[in-house]
Design brief:
Helix content: under 10%
Number of strands: 28
Order of helices and strands: EEEEEEEEEEEEEEEEEEEEEEEEEEEE
Number of helices: 0
Distance between the termini: 6 Å
Largest sheet: 4 strands, antiparallel
Strand content: over 45%
Radius of gyration: 17 Å
Strand order of the largest sheet: 1-28-27-26
Length: 291
């Protein structure tokens, strides 16, 4: 049931981000590159170059046609994956492009900033369409809800904010974490938010009622990432304790712990068929069967 399918020596330096959409697996590394991987044989399809410093975040549009990457060079790059070319380059400004993610319609990219603001960029024009203000700290993580109506952010001070996308209104500020929230994700039905924090905890929130419904302990160090399985029955977490854990949503129990990595695990991402990828400071991607 739970086993390692493959481990790939993927980059020349730490891998800080990963995304899986349809038949594309995307990784971003401190080696300044973004790599696209074949999800059948896990071979390298393309290396996307252009960033001048380490790549912090990557995301894929809903149908896998476009990719976005954010970097320590303050640039957001949108890539056309039909020909692996640079589609749009956005100069976000110093520390204005840390976390990054696509809107559900693929027309906008959200970026989290050091000032606590979230900018919404139009990928057609490269212009900033809107800014969501958290009035908080450095935004380390972002996620749009699958239904497209909500945007969640996690901050350096443990704050979590949920915005209504159509109006830009701040709907909820969620308590519960005492340290940085480096990863968060909405469940497939958009009703539950999972959050990963440096306080070693994973929280589950009822989005509509804005309350914490569960706090999960198990990792022995910072929890850096969390992602839902497409059926919503399970989610995965990655930690600086070098472990990847699979959790059951209903029972809130840890079903399995993988310990394949030799350094901290920065990102986890599920495929549509339930395979899982994790990336690490050890420069590798590990692919797992979680069914």
């Amino acid at each position: 049931m739970f086993h390692v399918i493959k481990q790939i020596d993927a980059h020349e330096d730490s891998i800080w981000s990963v995304c899986w959409s349809r038949n594309r697996l995307l990784t971003g590394s401190v080696d300044d590159t973004v790599k696209v991987w074949n999800t059948d044989n896990y071979g390298l399809v393309q290396t996307l170059v252009g960033h001048k410093l380490g790549v912090v975040g990557v995301d894929l549009s809903k149908y896998g046609t476009f990719a976005v990457s954010s970097s320590l060079d303050s640039q957001i790059r949108v890539w056309d994956l039909s020909n692996y070319s640079l589609y749009r380059q956005i100069a976000a400004g110093p520390v204005e492009a840390w976390s990054v993610c696509f809107s559900q319609d693929g027309k906008h990219v959200a970026s989290g900033t050091h000032s606590g603001n979230i900018h919404l960029w139009n990928i057609e024009t490269g212009e900033k369409d809107r800014t969501f203000e958290t009035r908080g700290k450095f935004v380390l993580s972002l996620a749009f809800s699958p239904n497209g109506s909500l945007l969640a952010s996690g901050a350096e001070n443990g704050a979590i904010h949920i915005f209504d996308v159509p109006t830009g209104k701040l709907l909820h500020s969620l308590p519960g974490h005492s340290m940085s929230v480096r990863g968060l994700a909405f469940s497939p039905d958009s009703k539950t938010l999972v959050t990963a924090s440096d306080d070693k905890r994973i929280n589950l929130y009822d989005v509509q009622h804005a309350n914490c419904i569960s706090t999960l302990a198990g990792h022995t160090s910072w929890v850096l990432s969390a992602q839902w399985q497409p059926d919503g029955l399970r989610f995965a977490s990655g930690s600086s304790d070098k472990k990847v854990k699979i959790w059951d949503f209903q029972t809130r129990q840890c079903l399995h712990t993988f310990d394949q990595h030799t350094d901290q695990v920065w990102g986890v991402a599920f495929s549509e068929d339930g395979r899982l990828a994790s990336v690490s400071d050890d420069k590798t991607i590990v692919i797992y069967n979680t069914q």
